[in-house]
Amino acid sequence: MSSAIVRLAGKKLVRNSLQSRNLIRNITSSAVTRSNNDSTSTTTTQKTHKFSYENAKKPISSTSSDLFTPENKLEFGSYQRKSTTLKVPDSEAKLIPSIITLHARLNLSSNYEHATLVRALTCPMEDNTYVDNQQMSLFGSSLLSFHVTEYLLSNYPRLPISILKNATEALIGDYSLYDVAKNSFGIEEDKTTNLEKFLSKEPRMFKFGKLRYDNFTNEVESGITKYNIDKPTSLKTATAYANSVRAIIAGIYAHDGAEASKQFIKDHILSRKIDISTMFQFNEPGKLLSRLLKTKKMESPVIRLISETGRNSNSPVFIVGCFSGDQMLSEGQGSSLKEARVRCSVNALKAYYLYSPLDAKLPSDEGFNGLFVDEGESFY
Amino acid sequence: MQALFRSSLRVSSNQASKYFSNSLSITSTRSVVFARNERIKGAIRDPEVILTSNGVRYGLNEENIKFVKSFLQSKSNGKYQLQDSLLLQVITHKSFAHGTQPYNEKLAYLGREILELIASKHAISQETSSAAAINNKNFDSLGSYCHRMITTDRLLTDFAISKGLSNIFFCRVALPNGKESPSYKPKGIFSTITSSLVGAIAAQHGMAAAEEFVETVVFEKVLKSVLKKAVNVEEVGSHK
């Protein structure tokens, strides 16, 4: 797969005209900024599909002394965290203004306890004795990951697996969920010190209405010496926010059941627009297209000029079509013949990979009747 | 050139000559030579070699899919039966024949997600008296050693082997000496049989059927192995 999805040779496309140069620069620069800012959509940075807390450095296992394990290891109901014993009662959680607003803003049902929201906003911290969201976010993440995968597989059955993983990451990766938590759910983090809280006469309970976590500091300002203050529980800001979203979704599953959590994911996560077509980068689109047609037992592609204007001017436009036998696969335009040809092949490949069935039903839907099963990427 | 003659070669189409009545014209076509044994630089390998895995020729026939098919037929009166072509796809790995045949990668990906979700659902839906439980659902066991072990490649491979699903499996396991060995079963490759079977059932019959299949058929065996392995780990740990 890695051989198939590679860089679009933007530089080589450009011929003489200034206009085309600007056009290409816009395309490539937008792709670059996207990959820099948003780690969710790159093909290079994310090689394996793992969530941040599942990496090798922080293995979560029962060997940690924190977990009480019953005699029969399969009695999962009897497992118990030792350190987190305290719980904010629901009656007190109902008095916290930010929890009440969050509950109302997310349109949660009356079954959903306010105390669960408090728990969802509490990340594991050193010396914290209140129940936290660690395991809830694990459950929320598998729930999210399943629903997003089945959505992508039903709607884009031919996506190559690396693009599928990137699209999943773009929907439910740490940075996307950080955006959901901060800008859509309006979750705030608890940044004030105890002294500031005392001086502003803030009731003690109000801190539970905010996201609390041990911040993982990577860089410090110049002139400040960094002591190793990172704890095993330290989280990056994006991860902490994302975990709160995952935990809230797990809470919906616990209180209202699978159907409600599915609807919530559909409303808040799957409704977000991601541009899958920009995740493709083809190095040699023409070659790839002829290989693809060969494996599909179709005639090899022929590029034909459809129309052109201003061949001898400084801003010519060529429109070419890609044909396999009598069928036109795609159309491409450009200010040189070569550019138009490359665009045309890219369009044909994208039309194939981004095929989407009409009214695709998901496997977890009522009245589901079979999925379009892709045969996989043929290499040669 | 000598190396070329030493190995057994097969010549498929040679110079084809055509004679016409009025004038003699010879059309020569290119010779294609397939190399069977040693790799010879520049020679094309015989496709028959590539389409054979552990002595079994690839193809959609009853003989190839009999193990998977009879296994599904024996469960719940054949409720989970699948199309023959889908069954063949389930037992074909990406590594086989350079990925030119329909393979199970995406089914395995979907199946893996389903297995992980159902393992978590199974863990939190157990009876509990924990004070930290939310609406009688205790999340505390998630991420524990036993919970994580349920969906490991090792146990999914064990499941596929014990049910005989891996008897005919089209894949190419490259051992260092370039040979194939029927006893070498890398878990990363063989676990895709189980996960893609789950994925295929979900793709054909829906999530409810897949969930039932996992709970009643897969977990029945896998949870027992988890228990066995967990005990072993403890014994090893106590010796340290």
From TrEMBL, chain A:
InterPro entries: dsRBD_dom, Ribosomal_mL44_DSRM_fung, Ribosomal_mL44_DSRM_metazoa, RNase_III_dom, RNase_III_sf. It holds the Pfam family Ribonuclease_3. PROSITE patterns: DS_RBD (PS50137), RNASE_3_2 (PS50142). Residues 99-182 form the RNase III domain. GO terms for molecular function: double-stranded RNA binding; ribonuclease III activity; structural constituent of ribosome. CDD domains: DSRM_MRPL3_like, RIBOc. Signal peptide: none annotated. It comes from the Eukaryota. GO terms for cellular component: mitochondrion. Its main location: mitochondrion. Belongs to the ribonuclease III family. Mitochondrion-specific ribosomal protein mL44 subfamily. This is Large ribosomal subunit protein mL44. It comes from [Candida] arabinofermentans NRRL YB-2248.
Automatic annotation (TrEMBL), chain B:
GO terms for molecular function: ribonuclease III activity; structural constituent of ribosome. One of its GO terms (cellular component) is mitochondrial large ribosomal subunit. It holds the Pfam family Ribonucleas_3_3. One of its GO terms (biological process) is RNA processing. Residues 85-227 form the RNase III domain. Gene3D superfamilies: Ribonuclease III domain. InterPro entries: Ribosomal_mL57, RNase_III_dom, RNase_III_sf. PANTHER family: 54S RIBOSOMAL PROTEIN L15, MITOCHONDRIAL, LARGE RIBOSOMAL SUBUNIT PROTEIN ML57. This is RNase III domain-containing protein. It comes from [Candida] arabinofermentans NRRL YB-2248.
